[in-house]
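Issue 218. Parser rejects a valid record. Input:
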Amino acid sequence: MSGSGGTPDRDAPGAALSDLDARITSCRLCPRLVAWREEAARSPRAPFATGQYWARPLPGFGDPRGRLLVVGLAPAAHGGNRTGRMFTGDRSGDFLFAALYRAGFANQATSTAIDDGLRLRDAYVTAPVRCAPPDNRPAPEERRRCAPYFAEELELLSRVQVVLALGAYALDSLWRQPLVTGATDLPARPRRTPMPRFAHGAEIPLPERPGGPPRILVCSYHPSQRNVFTGLLTAEMLDTLLERIRALLA
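Output the parser choked on:
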């Protein structure tokens, strides 16, 4: 299992993920994102004014042998960009981790800091973009620069059987990855395999990896404040989806 800060165990695939994490967290390839994440740290929101921001790219975290992979969009400027862990310290994470806890994929229902004791069970959480983007909208070239990190991470998470895409952006990013679609395109190139239509609860069979288990991609609305406050995504809806994922894994 991963440590409380999201660093995987130092054995395969944990050691390789640790190496990848080190390269991700030192990345400065996107000047706009570097400036934005660091500006957020210099201008913290009032509740976080006395704390120190992470203000670097974020690696994924969780169980490196997990069978469930949860894919979001990017860190929040005052969430993961502050705490140093995906979905930690913001409303989206509060909603997501409470649901993962109810489904047995997490040891606790809250995630407020990188050292809060959260452990994921049989699950791993990541995002295709590692820095907080302005207005939650990374530019196309920023997506392309991050794509190789995402591709390598997908390759290392070899036991994944179910991929949970949180939102249409996550589905689009996954569908650009050859390991997901079975296409021969390089990760940085535009997708050529037609992308399935996004719908909450949609189940999309994926090509099997050589010698690996059957795989399926499941779609969910993103647990953003807007989606939750408007009722587009409810706790019951996400619970039902995670129950279905449990059945798929069984």
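Fixed in the parser; the record now loads. The CA atoms of residues 38 and 92 lie 21 Å apart.
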